[in-house]
Design goal:
alpha/beta, 21% helix, 1 helix, 75 residues, three-stranded parallel β-sheet
Length: 75
């Protein structure tokens, strides 16, 4: 990283479509949390996870993580 780039964060958005997939969310987010904590990743990157829920009848409940988690219910 050059001197000019030091201190600048890279912004990452991960979009995950879900259809009746609540059972996979917790494991997936745990893996992303481990990756986010790997070698001080959070000091260089700002990450958000966007779940697009294609089955809004199933509510998605997500605990807090070190990154933003956004849930969009698609009718």
């Amino acid at each position: 990283m050059s001197k000019k780039e030091e201190g600048q964060k890279v912004y990452i958005s991960i979009i995950i479509p879900l259809y009746k997939g609540m059972r996979y969310c917790e494991r997936l987010l745990e893996m992303l949390q481990k990756a986010f904590n790997y070698k001080d990743f959070s000091s260089h990157y700002d990450m958000e996870i966007i779940f697009v829920n294609d089955f809004p009848e199933e509510k998605i409940m997500i605990p807090e993580y070190d990154f933003r988690v956004i849930i969009l219910n698609n009718s």
